[in-house]
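Tip: read the tokens left to right.
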């Protein structure tokens, strides 16, 4: 009986190195890696040893015979990935640290940020005995996205924070919290203090949607809601007011949108004991939200959410999940392969958003409606939002509108910025200036490197690529020589 990878998969590939029979794919050297929503165990090859389950940092791997009813589908999902793929017995060429790893001179690295990308970079750096690391974070609580971006009811995924916690007390690590790099200390000063600087600052602003009314009171970023229910220090307790709110419309259909819809329609008592903020729990207990509409600009075949997040919605009790869209939407969903995210909606009822019916009474089943083919053209209202207008003529009465069309990074004075990507300018993790010349001693990882794409585990390979580049640079020029060249560059303004 094989094991299966379930909803919590973080994709960081920790399980791969311990599998004795190479039955977990895609691996980092395979084309699919980074393009699937999770890793998958091949039931034809799995020998049921359980090593992968022990290694998984987020408890995403379970013996098939022990899958609860609401996750039994993952046995089939894992098997389905291999339906048209041959058994892969060959191992990739192993990768080893540089031969000189034990003879490298001492070097000091500043890592700006304490989220997953920062921690994966630190893990890779701490393999070098001569490394010293100083974390900087503008918040006084470490963890970044793992602490303030993961929904409180995703307890498995939130365990990634426990996986990193011991690193913050490592004898070669120093923590400097409550320090805003670029404000409290300049980027130039940081480069003077440390041999190398790695930026892991993520993406903390929203993509802009330029439609009339988007800035009306009652229209806000879903990021604000996430910070509100996770207790982010930047989001006040009264940032979200659910008083009198019956219908919420979310523009966008990525995983953030689904998290928001799930929390807003959750039974508050199911959130007791999680890391949800006390003020959010109190507000949800008094909430009158009856329906959440998730508006997707395109059809179900282009769904931006993952199948596992959608699966978590359709298996909940007490919350109806329905779909709405142009003619043929339901048929399109039924024709999707199992691996397609929206295939989890194949048993969902079809409703008409034009009638503006809201689930009538609090205490009855709440409802989440996936509205496909709904391109927003405006948010209506006088003193406050009262609806969302869509390109097809549909108007959905709404008491609260959340924008969830993606995040992007923001520029920081002193760092070269790629406005198109919303990330720090870099080549393979090495920061480059506006003329594509390398900036000595400065590196970047995570969303700040590649733009706001990918989940927590995708940062592992990304961060290791950057650290490999840093170690190559140490071999080419010792830290003392690098810092001399860096100071010349900073003084000359180049």
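Filled-in amino acids:
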């Amino acid at each position: 009986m094989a094991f299966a990878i379930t909803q919590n998969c973080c994709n960081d590939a920790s399980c791969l190195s311990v599998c004795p029979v190479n039955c977990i794919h895609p691996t980092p050297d395979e084309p699919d890696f980074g393009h699937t929503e999770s890793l998958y165990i091949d039931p034809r090859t799995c020998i049921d040893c359980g090593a992968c389950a022990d290694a998984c940092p987020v408890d995403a791997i379970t013996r098939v015979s022990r899958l609860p009813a609401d996750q039994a589908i993952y046995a089939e999902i894992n098997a389905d990935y291999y339906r048209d793929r041959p058994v892969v017995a060959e191992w990739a060429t192993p990768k080893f640290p540089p031969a000189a790893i034990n003879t490298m001179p001492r070097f000091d690295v500043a890592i700006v940020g304490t989220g997953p990308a920062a921690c994966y970079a630190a893990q890779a750096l701490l393999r070098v005995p001569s490394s010293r690391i100083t974390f900087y974070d503008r918040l006084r609580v470490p963890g970044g996205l793992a602490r303030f971006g993961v929904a409180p009811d995703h307890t498995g995924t939130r365990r990634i924070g426990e996986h990193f916690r011991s690193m913050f007390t490592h004898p070669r690590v120093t923590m400097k919290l409550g320090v805003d790099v670029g404000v409290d200390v300049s980027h130039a000063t940081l480069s003077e203090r440390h041999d190398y600087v790695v930026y892991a600052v993520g993406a903390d602003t929203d993509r802009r949607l330029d439609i009339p009314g988007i800035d009306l009171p009652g229209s806000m970023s879903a990021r604000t809601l996430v910070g509100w229910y996770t207790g982010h220090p930047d989001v006040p307790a009264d940032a979200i007011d659910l008083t009198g709110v019956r219908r919420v419309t979310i523009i966008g259909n990525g995983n953030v949108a689904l998290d928001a819809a799930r929390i807003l329609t959750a039974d508050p008592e199911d959130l007791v004991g999680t890391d949800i903020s006390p003020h959010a729990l109190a507000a949800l207990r008094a909430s009158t939200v009856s329906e959440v509409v998730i508006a997707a600009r395109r059809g179900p075949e282009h769904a931006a959410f993952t199948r596992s997040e959608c699966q978590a919605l359709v298996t909940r009790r007490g919350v109806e999940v329905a779909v709405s869209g142009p003619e043929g939407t339901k048929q399109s969903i039924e024709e999707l392969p199992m691996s397609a995210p929206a295939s989890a909606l194949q048993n969902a009822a079809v409703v008409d958003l034009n009638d503006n019916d809201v689930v009538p009474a609090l205490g009855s089943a709440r409802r989440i409606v996936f509205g496909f083919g709904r391109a927003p053209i405006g948010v209506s209202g006088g003193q406050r939002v009262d609806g969302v207008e869509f390109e097809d003529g549909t108007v959905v009465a709404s008491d609260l509108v959340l924008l969830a069309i993606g995040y992007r990074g923001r520029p920081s004075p002193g760092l070269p910025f790629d406005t198109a990507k919303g990330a720090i300018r870099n080549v393979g993790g090495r920061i480059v200036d506006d003329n594509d010349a390398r900036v000595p001693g400065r590196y970047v990882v995570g969303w700040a490197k590649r733009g706001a794409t990918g989940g927590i585990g995708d940062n592992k390979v990304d961060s290791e690529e950057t650290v490999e580049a840093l170690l190559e640079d140490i071999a080419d020029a010792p830290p003392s020589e690098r810092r001399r060249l860096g100071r010349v560059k900073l003084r000359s303004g180049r």
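Residues 207 and 406 are 6 Å apart (CA to CA). The chain has 16 helices and 25 strands.
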